[in-house]
Amino acid sequence: MPKKKQVKEEQDNPVVEVEEEALVDSEEDREEEKNLGIDDTDENLQEETQIKKVVGDVAGLPSEVAAINTDNETAREATKKVQGTTNKNKSRSKRYITAVSKVDKNKKYTIDEAIELAKETSSTKFEGSVELHVKLSEKKSKKKGTDELARGILHLPHGMGKELKVIVLDENKIEEIAKTKKVDFDVAIATPALMPKMGKIAKILGPKGKMPNPKTGTVSDDPEKVKEEIKNGKVEYKVDANNVVHQMIGKTSWDSIKLKENFQVVMQALPKNRVQSVALSTTMGPGIKVEY
């Protein structure tokens, strides 16, 4: 295309005309701002420099810290959680320190001595519980490597000193638990005929250890009888992941004879050849080794 003709078309092109007008307007605006003493060049430059600096600093930092610098509230909370994972040493009360000083950690006490010492070293102002802790050795069965002694049933002659809330499940209660996911009881009992319908709440009761089980006697054709037995001292014991049985055997205010009789019932239910260590303790009290 001839040069003159091209120039002529550009001059007649409305787009070119608009661009030229915009350039003229922009130039006039800058000139007017200059005459009025308005010059934001330095301000814009400083702002741009600051933004580049923040971006540059953030790029070389860990994500949590970088996000905090950009005012990210979520990352700030995450960082606080990470920093707060370090547990601080808790200070012990004078009452507890005094109680600990009365126990010889290198000595194994007879059961009579241990019970008296446990009651003496109870460091709570309220009525504490007396707990038995038995460490067992591992013994695997031939079936799937599971422990032969995972749980069991025993009958404490004097109960635990704790009022258990025991319920007998029915279809209405199952529907209620499935809907609300609320578990407001200690032990649940069911009949064998009801067990196929327990699938609705198995994932709710199972993790809490409150699912009726034939091995623990909580599945029975006579649930009212089982309920009465539980209230009279029938309890289930379990072995935890560390092969330890933790069982409450009474209260610190009880007569020592009652505590001893409950202790003996628990120990008779456990295999003697697997008992590695025995200890007594009270609520917030020190552990006391027992000779057994």
Description:
This protein has 292 residues and is α+β, with helices and mostly antiparallel strands. It folds into 3 domains: 46 residues, no CATH class; 126 residues, 2-Layer Sandwich (Ribulose 1,5 Bisphosphate Carboxylase/Oxygenase), CATH 3.30.190.20; 72 residues, Ribosomal protein L1/L10, domain II (Rossmann fold). The protein has 11 helices and 8 strands. The longest helix is centred in the first third of the chain and has 22 residues. It is elongated and about 55 Å long. The N terminus is likely disordered.
Major sheet description: 4 strands, antiparallel
Count of DSSP H/I helices: 11
Strand content: 5-15%
**Intertermini distance:** 112 Å
Topology, element by element:
Elements: H1 3-12, H2 14-35, H3 41-59, H4 63-69, H5 73-83, H6 94-101, H7 111-120, E1 129-136, E2 151-155, E3 166-168, H8 171-180, E4 187-189, H9 202-205, H10 223-231, E5 234-238, E6 244-251, H11 256-269, E7 275-282, E8 288-289
Parallel strand pairs: 3-4
Antiparallel strand pairs: 1-6, 1-7, 2-5, 7-8
Output the keywords:
Rossmann fold; two-stranded antiparallel sheet; 8 strands; 14% strand
Question: TL;DR of this structure?
Answer:
With 292 residues, the protein is of the alpha+beta class.
